[in-house]
Amino acid sequence: MPDNRTNNNHSLSKSLYVKGLQCHKSLWLHKNKPELKDKVSVTQQATFSTGTDVGILAQQLFPGGVLVPFEELSYEDQISMTEEAIASGKRTIYEATFRFDGIFMKADILHRGKRGWELYEVKSSTGVKDVYMDDLAIQYYVITGSGLKLNRSSLVHINNKYVRNGEIDVNELFAVADLTTDIMSMQKDVAANLKAMKKMLAGKMPDIDIGPHCSDPYECAFSGHCWQHIPKHSVFDFADIGKPDPFPLYQQGIILMKDVSREELGWRQKLQLDAMKMKKVIVEEEKVKTFLDDLWYPLCFLDFETTYMTPVPLFEGTSPNKQVPFQYSLHVVDKQGKKPRHFEFLAEPGKDPRKDFLNSLLENLPADGCIVAWNQNFEISRLKELGAQFPRKQKKIAALIEHFRDLMTPFKKKDIYHRDFDGSYSIKAVLPALIPDLSYKGMPVSNGEEASIAWLSLWGETDKRKVQETRQQLLDYCCLDTLAMVKILEVMRNLTTTRA
């Protein structure tokens, strides 16, 4: 059927209202220049999908409701269906639809309780945030303005203390925060905010410069457009402890790092500034040698991939957003000069991977090896969690933990620094700077979040070709994580021996 939804430039939704609170310019661009938006990343899309899934699951808190669909109906039909559901005595409506004062909105859950209608907004986070209250406030404004009295306005969020025991218990998984009093007190502000937004939308694009609001409370979809005038090596590129607040500098007209007074910088930022003028690696040789002297053979370069952003626990005994290891890569160098042996594990999707993961790791990891990781606390934390789950393996795990050495440490301490690190000590920054032939750039899976998304995407996937392709992408990515450490360690040794 043809879509007769309104394209009125002044019409808003609850999400656009929240965007307008963050930045009028962003709202104006959304309405007038949507083609300037940044491309939605894989991680952002996964966040949206997770939010949708959590919202659907929360409907089980009030089972038996009627759904007002979005895609199949025009705006007018959605509103009519909502009105009919209310008039016919339905107790629960999912995605109830209203329009008032130029705002079109859909409520996650509208429930008729003992004392009247109750509004529930569902979020996949684990607590109440100010921006969620703004979201509820505009909904209250539109619903009550449409003539429906609300007795209660609440936020439904994830209970981070929930532990899965069997099937998901939605009454335990979700927590409900009654925010009625706060939401009612915000109504005058809502009306004033809307008036200001409508006035702004009737004119030209507001002249609003970049600022902290560009990423608070959300990363703006127009950051690429609004920040395009900021050059490389700007004051926004200072990193680490002691860095100056870039916005006051920017507002004073100080854009480039080199124009900042050294008196305003910590020693890390001075190093970052000095490195910009040099084409070589800066090395604290004695400190790096001390680190290298603490390593022994066999060297075991280890990296884990874990689930990420899973507010609904996937496995027995896990809590919301628990990082469950499903993949590892291991490069073992038995002696200096010997070619590394590679071991890897990637769990089958759809089942708890922890037992098979641990058994495979213990089988392939030399008991007497020096285990080299990048940010070792991550791997150690996962191993401790596995030890708690499998008590019989705790002794072996505890012995392995004693053998960990963190390859990130010399880079975090700035004992080795290169201008192309840009102040970072992430392996994603260090690798291409030291070894230009190796990089994560262009890989279909190029970071841990994407690895989790890719693995979870295989759950229920029936296309064998897609499964094989995605598995190979995961194996390639995790393999590079440990190969990168092998190569970086080689560079570190060369830097200290050639200068001796």
Strand content: 15-25%
The tally of structural domains comes to 3
- Count of individual helical segments: 19
CATH top level of the largest domain? Answer: Alpha Beta
The largest β sheet comes out as:
7 strands, mixed
Overall radius of gyration: 27 Å
Within the CATH hierarchy, at the fold level, what is the topology of the largest domain? Answer: Nucleotidyltransferase, domain 5
Shape: globular
**Residue runs with pLDDT of under 50 for 5 or more positions:** 1-7
Q: How many E-type strands?
A: 14
Describe, in plain words, how this protein is organized in 3D.
Strands 1, 2, 3, 4, 5, 6 and 7 form a 7-stranded mixed beta sheet that branches. The chain has helices at residues 14-22, 24-32, 42-58, 75-87, 130-145, 170-173, 180-185, 187-201, 223-226, 246-251, 267-276, 285-293, 354-364, 376-389, 394-401, 409-412, 427-434, 448-457, 464-497, and strands spanning 12-13, 66-67, 92-100, 103-113, 116-122, 150-158, 174-178, 282-283, 299-306, 325-333, 341-346, 370-373, 404-406, 416-417. The chain contains 19 helices and 14 strands. It folds into 3 domains: 12-201, Alpha-Beta Complex (Lambda Exonuclease, Chain A); 229-276; 285-497, 2-Layer Sandwich (Nucleotidyltransferase, domain 5), CATH 3.30.420. Helix 14 (376-389) runs antiparallel to helix 15 (394-401) and helix 17 (427-434) packs across helix 19. With 500 residues, the protein is of the alpha/beta class. It is globular.
